[in-house]
Amino acid sequence: MDRPLTHHIQPDKQPLSLKKYEKQGGYQAVQKALRDFDPVDLQNHVKEAGLKGRGGAGFNTGLKWSFVPMGDDAPRPKYLVANADEMEPGTFKDRLLMESNPHLFLEGIILSAYAIGAEKSYIFLRWAYHLSKKNLEKAIAGAYENNYLGENIQGSGFNLDLHIHISAGRYICGEETALLNALEGKRANPRAKPPFPQTSGLWGKPTIVQNVETLANVPGIVNNGINWYKDISNSEEDGGTKLYGVSGKVKNPGLWELPMGTTSREIIEEHAGGMQDGLKLNGWLPGGASTDFMVEEHLDVPMDYGSVMEIGSRLGTGTMIVLDDQTCPVGMIENLEHFFAQESCGWCTPCRDGLPWTEKILHAIEHGEGKMEDLDQLARHSKWLGPGKTYCALAPGAVEPLQSGLKYFREDFERHINEQRCPWS
Amino acid sequence: MPTIYIDDNPYEVKEGKNLLDAVLSLGEDLPYFCWHPDLGSVGACRQCAVIQFQDEEDEQGRLVMACMTPASEGTRISIQHPDASQFRENVIEWLMVNHPHDCPVCDEGGECHLQDMTVMSGHNYRDFRFKKRTHRNQDLGPFINHEMNRCIACYRCVRYYRDYAGGGDLQAFAAHDHVYFGRHEDGVLESEFSGNLVEVCPTGVFTDKTLKRHYTRKWDLQSAPSICNHCGLGCNTIAGERYGTLRRILNRYNSSVNGSFLCDRGRFGYEFVNDDARILTPVMKNVETRQFEEVSEDDAVAKIAELTRDKNSVIGIGSPRASLESNFALRTLVGSNRYSSGMSNAETELVNLSRQILNDGPAHSASLKDVEKSDAVLVLGEDLTNTAPMMALAVRQAVRNQPVEKAKQAGIPEWNDNAVRELIQDEKGPLYLATPTNTKLDDVATKTYNAAPQDLARFGFAVAQFLAEESPKVIGLDEDVKSMAKSAADALKNAKRPLVISGTSLLNKSLIQSAANVAWSLCANGKKAEIALTVPEANSMGMSFLEGQGIESAFERAASDDIKTAIILENDLTRRVDSKAWNQFLKNVENIVVIDHLENETTAAADILLPAGTFADSDGTLINNEGRAQRFFQAFEDDSAVQESWRWLQGVLDLGKDTDVSDWYSLDNVFSAMTKSVDTFKGDIVVAPDAKFRINDQKIPRSPYRYSGRTAMKANVDIHVHKPPQDPDSPLSFSMEGYSGKQPSGLTSFFWSPGWNSVQSTNKYKNEVGGELRGGDPGIRLIEPKRNASPKYFTEVPEPFSPREGEWLSIPLHHIFGSEELSAKSFGLSKRAPEPYVALNPSSAEKLGLQMESRVSVKLDGTEHTLPITLHENLPDGVIGLPVGLPDFNGIPLPNWSKISGATE
Hints:
heterodimer; A: Rossmann fold; 4-stranded parallel sheet; globular; B: alpha/beta; Ubiquitin-like (UB roll); Dimethylsulfoxide Reductase, domain 2; 7-stranded mixed sheet; 6-stranded parallel sheet; 36 strands
């Protein structure tokens, strides 16, 4: 099985040096693209391959690039920004790539920047990722030394500068426009769209913001072509492989590169080794905290964007949080809503003042002070904080575990209220 | 004009608006918070949600924010849709989660946008059952009260304060439901426009601290449309009274003048009206004791009539802070050749020159709105923030016009505020500032040039030379100054609406002339150039229409002729002339008659002193710098002898019998007598509806219909119900009775509309959001350019400034807080006024061996002042600056040569 994202990763997780990476075929994609591809061709190539954004939104990457103004009249400079502010609870996939395979990531940045004609790029890195920073800095220095970055890259006439920016550490910075504001030194509030960053992004210039894993997919597509990329996927619509992860009380929590569209059953039961002894699977969040619960009946749903959406959840980051039968679902959701309420930027009303309300209700229920009407309040918030109501996707994401929790674990909520205590405590 | 459908009804709307703007412009209701007519849309509060349908077939629709959605052809929305109205109700409920239930004790109550929107949205039952979060409040100085617990986080305050007004010390702090709007620490808000927070804030976070000292609810105020009398711009205000004291000043929207905002001098400078030093009864000096003694009104008038029987023995000194009518009455009494404008000779000359330039030249005299719309600006000499504050705010908007045009071309509508700001970043349109020292507009200037006044004028002449070959050449200009002049000339020439600003504040004729040359040379290039010339006081421009002579000339006349009596109208002459001249004048004149409203050094010298009305307790007409005549109306009347100065003089004239003033019983008649007899006013001029104006036979009320206690307010003194005072001067009633619909534009004593108790009701009075008031903006322009005129360029280019050995050119430095006489007496402003100082540049200080904490002695015209020094990095060598008009530091003739004698410890 092809593992384009992880096959360079050593058992000890130490990143390859630039020379070793080159020896294993590294930077061939850059050489090839600069030699054989016109930027717009590269955009089309990636578009046709069916690469979708791995940050969670699942938008076609090449299509996104095609909105960037090209040609001599395009505003300058243009920017490529790597969203490495991995703060989605339960998600640790970009970290692996940056710590252990930094050159692949850089190669993806260079290719993507070339595709949109960007001359400046930033890695917006989560503050806590110290090892990523260290390994990336070393890789970037190597890339400069070997003219994969800087002026006139590999004699192609293409220039690219790359900087690492360490995030101050807010969940909202993962929202691409809030990220851009933070990068500009402003409050990390999201921006209204339109205009989209493709036309007015960083400092008002055309900008593409792309998740780390997405960028890491690009070299493989360039090296091996569209058909190969589609073939390595199990999914009808979505190409490539996916880094799937599992956390929670399974035997073997971890992260695996698997064909896009692998089922939850395979991921949880085979790769994660199933539940720890004595525990039963109660449900799981398929792609980070901001996705709807899936339950036993969904075990055989292929984990690709379309299939997960069909059953009312989202693939998200593809890193699951597993809930077992000895952990209180209300407590888990309370914990999540606490996180989301705290991470609201405070810009729009429903998110700023609605999420803390849900947190307070959940806290009351979990601590034996719940009332039956509280469930109506929670349902009301799930509805009115949903997509299209708020300024950005934070609150709609935040209510996904809440609304699905109310659906799948309603009895548990009611038991809390009837017994005026947490049955698990 | 696109057609949009609201709940299936078609409406025509103006191109390029968003849905919220369109809905409000149609006169419909839709609640909102973060949107503001002058700040555009940001989509934060989510209050203006509506359901938008793709087409006629679409029955589902989707929730959108009206403020963020273009009102384009065929847009179909529903305001009534249950999903939209439920969502709006939810938004209010969320906003109310932490909002204290303190309406009864909140200063905003009764004029609170949050209250209005809550009622409009239908939220009334509270489901939130947990504790509210609380904040600590800050002391923000003497103007603004801070109560953060009431905050609903609409972000309007910071967007206004930072983005619109250019302030730096108000910020949004923290995140989620702990967002905090305030300063990094307690302290005075630095912006000169902070008072607008009171009206921008939709609830009671930022309220008027001066009002708090004598609080009254909006509905209990008796108010009148007024004109600010603290600088020459003539901003429109509302003056509100209760129990005989003026309680506050509020902005009165006028799209051509001040729009939605006021400066802090204008808003908080009103308290002199309530001062203990108000003159309330006529007094006469006892010949023996030299003490004032009360006299009856009739005796006082008779005595003055006696003194003025021989006209040839009387001079009259008017005032640029008094109304046209009062000045005209004085001029009529003493004769035009013995009437003085009450301004210094120099100021009189400059104001006359300004009117001549605006009147005879081809360049259009710019209103504040014109300033705001201009897209390239040259400022010659004026420190606008301190001499004409609201013009500085207008210039701050003007520099956005060129970049905003770019955003529009990139497909971002102007109302999409954050997106526009993101695209244009720090880009600014051309603004060239030539001033003696740094100013608070420097941060948005393309280039600044700091030099001595005559060098600034030379720079102006050089700009004109680059635009018109035949305008005079400037010899010996430095290369860098020349190249800046060239780039300023190019910027103006390439602009669509170029503007030149100058004014009288440095008392430099060449500067104003050079500004005229620039404007006229732009006109010669086929540009529709605008020119704005600032003048010092509320009616300075009006004085030039009445063509009085300067004070020094009047004093000369008092010395040479057989002058026995001087009548001084609303003017503290000691602020305008030095003490030597003043004392000489007092010796030359036997009888001094003063009519004024506050005790001052001039009133102290009076033999007869009559109480005049202030702007708040009298009516009158003022002409602003632009040449716009505007009427201010009396907000209240009390039982004292206070009346309009012209009424006192009418009494005197009536006894004198020289002039028939029998019909001078109303302001309208005095005004029309003036326009008939003074040549500079041409024909019939209607400034405001006359006193006979009625709607449905009804007067226009000064108070809202909820006004409480009219018949009971004074019951503790007298249980009889008194008839409200009559008002012969205006169609306004001293009561809540009268026409209850929307008042006509010039007669708006309060903005109110059903369901809209806050200042946001202003939108209901406009033709469209951001547009003119219905029925047209009030006031009338008396100065229009002669578009086809090509007057001769001014040719007197001054010599370059050369510093003198051992002497310093002292120039006037103006202060928004402190330099203006009346506002400086107000409680809040007096705390913001600087102490007297002398400003010089660091290298001069070093040359003189001065330390920062040094005090120096400044000698000029035989007087000596010991002052602390203030370093101004950019003041030119050989020039020092002295503050103008401070309460205890005025009457110093500037500019002037002075000597500094080192440190005196």
